[in-house]
Amino acid sequence: MHRTFRTSTLRRQMYLDGFWDFVVDPEDVGVSARWYSQYPQPVRSLWVPGVWNTAREFLNYEGAAWLRRRFTLRPCAAAALHFAAVTHQANVWLDGEPLGEHYGGFLPFSFLIPRPEPGEHELVVRVDNTHDLSTTIPSARLDWFRYGGIPRPVWVEELDGPGYIARLHLKPALCEGEASLRVEVELVNLTDRPLQEEWTLYLDDQPCRSGVARLDPEDIQDLAFTVAVPQPRLWSLADPQLYTMRLAWAGDDLIERTGFRELSIAGRQVLLNGQPLSIRGVNRHEDHPDWGFALPEHLMLRDLELVHDLGLNAVRGAHYPNDQRLLDLCDERGLLFLEEIPLWGFDREQLALDIIGNRASAMLWAMIQRDAHHPCIWAWSVLNECATDTPEGRAIVEQLVETAHEADDTRPVTFASNRPWNDLCFDLVDLVSVNAYYGWYTHDLTWPEFLQRMRAKIGEKPLLVTEFGAGGIYGCHALEEGVIWSEEYQRQVLERALAAFLADEDLVGFYIWQFCDTRTDTGPRALARPRNYNNKGLVDEYRRPKLAYYAVRELLRGRPSA
Ligand code: ADA
Questions:
Q1: Cβ atoms of 259 and 292 closer than 8 Å
Q2: Which long-range contacts (CB under 8 A, 24 or more apart) does 195-198 make?
Q3: Which of 149, 391, 458, 543 is most exposed, with minimal Cβ within 10 Å?
């Protein structure tokens, strides 16, 4: 598994990073022409993990494309093939036979290949990044780029059997100092004989629970149990303590990592280990001109170093489940993370569509299953700037909040609203989050007035500002006041907002929009997006700091400008 720590001591893991054959299929003829078994003459190759919209010929290509890669297996009982993410629809074939499909660009999926022939195999993936207004999440109306490709790692594991641990989900909980860990496991018998084997769960190398699993030939079995963890070392921002859990069973093992900390709500505050949280965060897209969504790990790390340098303690993964390695790094570095599904900007007609509701619930469920063990995640966000001032919006928020609470009852659930005065859904969430752009899109209120009016509206609930900011084009300067797109004006808007937030003791916190400039749509928004970029970054797309960067750092850390 492609993470920041070792995930198995027994499996032979092979990463399929590198150049894959690549052909685009603008007429969508590939399936009928059987490109999965008769791959056409490749036009070129594409680096995986990667997206095609960073290659000159395909900068704006949206549609189907086919990728092929060969790999060699040694003799083994089975092989597991894992994709950390494909944007957005993936259909997968191995040696000309279908393995399956997956929809949802930011979440993982896997296939088990029983008794594969040793030797070379041909893997073909049809990837489709088509966005529309009625079936896809995200939809075609967006303010970030619709990169297509395989932006996160693909890897194969050779399994010797007789067993395979297909899933190890950990749900840590801490309540009044008592820690417990809910463990959910899926076991697979790779053999055609009954299998009876002891399993052991290790907590930091110490056995902490064991049992015997009996499986029929080729059977799959779910196990779920809870273990108590006495006197846990707590995960906190200052001292992010982590535990390693290893499950061993029938010739296989799987390692995951977690941490214990308590989140609770007391009136207007969110408490972390009993202390009021003060979120000082930034919104970050996974975006870079050379990599699109597919930032390599050393660039993720560098981004987090800048977050730390700014004096911030939190990242909002705007607006989709982030790479798990980024979450691993946040766990390790004591950074808080707010995670969201890409239900962005949907209007009431879109929200009323069954396919949208079903896909959103499935994504939310899968995101929480994937990530509930990360101590860095402090809240789930079920959508951003949708029609939550309509009955259709209320129905979907109700459905998604219920899904999130059912999947995880230890974290607050929220959504980001941009219609604070007419929103119909604030009563449904544990924490109210608003996006507002005073000094940029709107000028009718000051931030202190806004906060006061919001309080009057929502009463004793915790309040978070999930977005605020202004555009500033790197290198654009102005002597006069109020020149939009100048670095000076961006700095001024952020300074005014931060002064209000830092003076407001009841505010749970804020997330600056945004970390870096990000590539965006060429569509109707283009006039408001010079360079086809969202220019509200503290750093530009190459991470060069703007004046706003130094101003934020000075306000939060007292560190003077460079
Ligand atoms: C919205 C949206 C962001 C971004 C921002 C902006 O609040 O949630 O994704 O588009 O506006 O820059 O206007």
A1: no
A2: 195/162, 195/163, 195/219, 195/250, 197/162, 197/163, 197/249, 197/250, 198/249
A3: 391
**CA separation for the pair 403, 483 (Å, rounded):** 45
Token digits of residue 137: 């999440």
Measured in Å, residue 435 CA sits from the centre of ligand 1 at 8
0.90 exceeded by the pTM?
Answer: yes
Residue 528 CA: nearest ligand 1 atom is 13
Chain mean pLDDT for the chain: 96
CA atoms within 13 A of residue 80's CA, in its CB half-sphere: 24
pLDDT 10s digits, 324-354: 999 999 999 999 999 999 999 999 999 999 9
Q: What is the pLDDT of residues 169-226, one digit of tens each?
A: 999 999 888 899 999 999 999 999 999 999 999 999 999 999 999 999 999 999 999 9
Instruction: Measure 140 CA to ligand 1 centroid, in angstroms.
Output: 15
Tell me whether residue 172 is exposed, middle or buried, using C-beta atoms within 10 angstroms of its C-beta: 0 to 12, 13 to 18, 19 or more: buried
Task: Give the DSSP letter of residue 447.
Answer: H
How many angstroms does the Cα of residue 143 sit away from the middle of ligand 1? 7
Q: Are 347 and 139 in contact (CB under 8 A)?
A: no
Mutate which of 143, 145, 343, 485 to test ligand 1's pocket (most atoms within 8 Å of Cβ)? 143
CA 371, CA 256: separation in Å to the nearest integer?
11
